[in-house]
TrEMBL record, chain A:
Species classification: Bacteria, Bacillati, Actinomycetota, Actinomycetes, Mycobacteriales
InterPro entries xref list: HotDog_dom_sf, MaoC-like_dom
Protein family membership: Belongs to the enoyl-CoA hydratase/isomerase family.
Domain MaoC-like: 9-107
Protein name, entry field: MaoC-like domain-containing protein
Automatic annotation (TrEMBL), chain B:
Protein name, per record: FAS1-like dehydratase domain-containing protein
Domain FAS1-like dehydratase, chain residue ranges per copy: 11-143
UniProt cross-references to InterPro entries, sorted A to Z: FAS1-like_DH_region, HotDog_dom_sf
Alphabetized SUPFAM superfamilies for the sequence: Thioesterase/thiol ester dehydrase-isomerase
Amino acid sequence: MGRPAATLEVGQVVESRSIGPITQTDIVRFAGAGGDFNPLHHDAAYARQAGLPDVIAMGQMQAGMLAAWIADLVHVENLLSFSVRFASPLAIGQTIEMTGTVSSVSTEDATAHLELLAKSGDRAVISGRARVRIALSG
Amino acid sequence: MTRSSTQGIPIGSVLDTVSFEVEAGKIMEFARATHAADPVHTHPEAARAMDFPNVPATPTHVVVAAHHRDQKEFVAALGLAIERVVVGSVDWEYIRPIVAGDRLTGTRRVIDDVTREGKRGGVMRLVTLETAWVDDTGATAVTQREVLIERGA
């Protein structure tokens, strides 16, 4: 029946995921999927006029990547809540590196919290948190 | 911090309502765009083998509602200057995974609207919006909250 939940322990570092370098095609693909057609994300001349060096990705693209990665790790049906904070923009040519640590485990309701971070080089792009259902060991 | 209900739409009132059908093709497209690897999002047989009635969407799928909304219109309705607005944070609470075939209606309300001093001077306005995504049985599947930040002029 279905899939077993993951077993997670406090302090555990989950398997990271790296996506990139981000291309204009990646951004356009997300625009088509998500419906965000703000020209800041696909029109370089418009982005420059707005004071950016070039187009930037939509925050929801990075949020979706972070969420999909966590869902791949714990299975989507075990994800109870997910939140993101946008720290800095992601530009074409940059690679996003996603890392996560289990910050707490509740044996009472078989859930865990994860602290998530997506960086490009040393710069934070987004931070996030997830609450997930887990399997209790032993 | 100053609470204001004079700018834009009063706290508690509905900003907009959007309905759409969750489609397998859109789930696949969104999963690909966000690099989801789990085959349940893209292969109906993999989904059914895991007891899903149909392919489940990835966790942030309801953002596809942007296809059905006019961003300029709702930002203007809130009394915000679009060129100074960024999204600060978003969170989702899941009651169940949404699956292809669901028909969802999202009612978006203004739940907070405050101004405060920005770190680099000027006044920032923070508007918190909450959307309850309800299926055809009237049950909420997902709740989404987003905080829009308007930087000082």
